[in-house]
Amino acid sequence: MKFTLQQKNHIRHIRNERLETIKKDYRGNKTIDGRFANGDTLYNPPFSKVLSWQLSRNPQREEKKQDDFVPPIFEGSEFIESDKDMVVWLGHCSFFIRLGGVTFLTDPVLFDVPLLPRRVGLPCPPEQLRNISFLLLSHGHRDHLDKKSIRAVFESNPQLKALIPLRAGDILRAVNPHLPYQEAGWYQKFDLLPEGVEVYFMPASHWHRRGLLDMNKVLWGSFVIKTPTLSLYFAGDSAMGPHFEEIEDLLGPMDVCLMPVGAYKPAFLMAKSHMNPHESVKAFNLLRGGTFVPMHYGTFDLSDEPPGEPVRLLRQIAAGGMLPGLRIPAIGEPVLLQDLY
């Protein structure tokens, strides 16, 4: 794959030269000493803050201990055989999506992650997830890019193609060298889709790390899926930032937004990586969103807030009239897109 490289000292701008870039005069994603930046700025989560978090007492410790919330499960695999356009949450940031007759699976994490057991199951065994055309991977963190899950999905879906961030290909080659993929940078349009369905890789404010020496060596981002009648936004992981308004400026209002709402405490550690529910609603409004579907909560224990707090806050916001499009589906419960409009 050929990339456009423009170097000044240790700064380069990288994109997939084969793909269309929809932002005028955008040279590509900025790297500094080989590491991707959020816009113009490198973000390296300081180890001192992680250590401070581990050594400090969670002020909500007792509340969290007593909070037994887990997302409900709508069991069954009928949604897989349906021909209706829909969104089905599979836990954390994993969604089965059918849009314009094309099926997608986002950030599949279908099993326990090392040191992070799933707190809730799946609606059906992973091997029943079939008829999937495209795998969308937002970034390389292990709670989003799980090799075991991708391997299982590819075994059941030999027709699968992966749409991924720049430099994530090496990770997929280690999963299965026969899994086809296409890398994109921010503001780029993938060209593997059938006519009538478009997929764009768009910005997020986040970071990458899987090992000791790969900090920010792989890009991160979000996805927009568009048909002539509907636009769907999958946020991946992101902190609050100006990119939400810019996405709406470039691609228009987002009819359905899959938005992260968990892993936001303590704020001193999480605020530059994730959004709390209030921030996520603000981002949704900047996207001029229609329907808000939450994710990134309840499935894994990643942070200090009680597991049920994100849902309680979202319902409070909706009760105040600030989130009329809120939908909180059970895991495995189809959200039929034709019923939303």
TrEMBL record:
<dbReference type="Pfam" id="PF12706">
    <property type="entry name" value="Lactamase_B_2"/>
</dbReference>
<protein>
    <submittedName>
        <fullName>MBL fold metallo-hydrolase</fullName>
    </submittedName>
</protein>
<dbReference type="InterPro" id="IPR001279">
    <property type="entry name" value="Metallo-B-lactamas"/>
</dbReference>
<dbReference type="InterPro" id="IPR036866">
    <property type="entry name" value="RibonucZ/Hydroxyglut_hydro"/>
</dbReference>
<feature type="domain" description="Metallo-beta-lactamase">
    <location>
        <begin position="104"/>
        <end position="297"/>
    </location>
</feature>
